[in-house]
Amino acid sequence: MSRKILVSASTAAKAATTVAALRRVGVPAERIQVVLPDAAHAANTTDAVRRLAAAAAGVVLSGGPDLDPRAYGEEPLPAGNLCILPERDALDLELLAGARAGSVPVWGICRGMQVLNVFLGGTLWQDLPSQLPRAANHDLDRPLDALAHEVRVAAPESRTGDILGRETALVNSRHHQAVRELAEPLVAVGFAPDGLVEAVELADGGWWVRAVQWHPEDLVAMPQQRALWDELVAAVEAFATGAPVAARRRAGGPEA
């Protein structure tokens, strides 16, 4: 049985747009598996989730509720307007642990980038409106593909930086938490106009990890955003076959 791409989400309905984006870039439905916190909780074991991730072709951490600040050593702000789902936090952190153990490619989206940062030792702004009142509006939630701001490329030599640097990078935005202290293994490759980190890559070339703060699943119609998904597919295919990503491109794999 071929390895599957796992999509972590709070509910099946919330996973639908991410699944649709994967299908749009050529991933067959049978190779996508949605993983929900209820299923992880019912299993009553973290080992099962870790084994699932370690045996996957890729892990996509989709958007969702706020990450509990206690995960990075802080108490929730009384006025932080937090919406926390502990089961989802446990699921995503265990998926990351399994993916790291198996060097499985990881793609983080919005909350997914925040969880990744905390998993690797970073912290978050719990609530941008109260903690950084001068920050740009990062909560433009309708329509889902509304372009809220530009992303400034900080590392053009990176793969994500190369894609975002091909033209002006315009992204949607709907979040009130964000990276505060960037985890040391991560490299910031894109910033919002107000300085918030918008895109990261893992410096360790042995584990393919990318994440963005916006929602590219709503922007697949844009060539630049589709290229980010194509890059994920190339990484997943290369990992599944044991071939370097570059070799897969030369052999006719998806081009970023």
Task: Explain what you see.
The protein has 256 residues and is an alpha/beta fold. It has a single domain, classed as Rossmann fold. It is 35% helix and 19% strand. The chain is built from 9 helices and 13 strands. The strands form 3 sheets. A 9-stranded mixed sheet has the order 2-1-3-4-13-12-11-7-8, sandwiched between helices. Strands 5-10 form a two-stranded antiparallel sheet. Helix 4 (86-102) packs across helix 5. The chain is globular, with a radius of gyration of 17 Å.
Helix and strand layout, with pairings?
Layout: E1 5-8, H1 12-24, E2 32-35, H2 37-43, H3 46-54, E3 58-61, H4 86-102, E4 106-109, H5 111-119, E5 124-125, H6 128-131, E6 139-140, E7 149-153, H7 159-164, E8 169-171, E9 173-174, E10 178-179, E11 186-191, E12 197-202, E13 209-212, H8 223-241, H9 245-250
Parallel strand pairs: 1-2, 1-3, 3-4, 4-13
Antiparallel strand pairs: 5-10, 6-9, 7-8, 7-11, 11-12, 12-13
The name of the CATH superfamily reads Class I glutamine amidotransferase (GATase) domain
Overall pLDDT level: 89
What's the CATH architecture name? 3-Layer(aba) Sandwich
Give the strand tally.
13
Series of secondary-structure elements, N-terminal to C-terminal: EHEHHEHEHEHEEHEEEEEEHH
Count structural domains.
Answer: 1
Offer a concise description of the structure.
By secondary structure, this protein is of the alpha/beta class. The chain contains nine helices and 13 strands.
Task: Based on the model shown, name its key terms.
256 residues, alpha/beta, Rossmann fold, two-stranded antiparallel sheet, 9 helices, 35% helix, 19% strand, disordered C terminus
